[in-house]
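Appendix B. Raw example, untouched.
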Amino acid sequence: MFYWFLRILVLPFYRLIYRQKVYGRENLPKDGKVIIIGNHYSKADVFMMSTLYRKKVFFLAKKEWFSSKFKSWFFKKLGGIPVDREKADLASLKNCLKTIRDGKTLVVFPEGTRNKTADEDLLPLKGGASFIAYLSKTPVVPVAMSRKFRPFRKNYVYIGEKFDFSEFKDRKFNAETSDETTEIMRGKLLDALYNAREKEKSKGKRK
């Protein structure tokens, strides 16, 4: 109830302040379990992902977001799943797998932190997202923003085609498999990013 109340309250203001143009909506599964991966510039990225669906989505967020009782309650109500980025977090992994088993949508930013440099299209991806997709046999959809969201400035979002790691189903998940699946994920996310930037260029110069 709290989530839907907050969504109804906040969404109009978000759409007024952060103007987004979304392409590739036909690639977004309406039902069934799915992992959404995205590039990451700011906290606003989480809200953008939420606008893609009318249903509630769940997302991985660094444990610092849950540093107090109120913050923990608040972000968990919004669908947040805390993760410790400094070590293998089994509790977080179990929560992600349960979310997927329940048929819910999980959002992961595989860069692991915000990209604060203009020199890198993507930061190196962490292996956790590909491991979750492999372990849960869940399709993945890449969603990329052309740049960081800023108030009252249009941003372009591209949703790529879904993919999975079924070709690895007969292989154990080891360091080599992790590297290969993560590289595939990186390539798909880069394709979505380049498409988002192409859409932006076709609509005029960046302001």
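End of appendix B.
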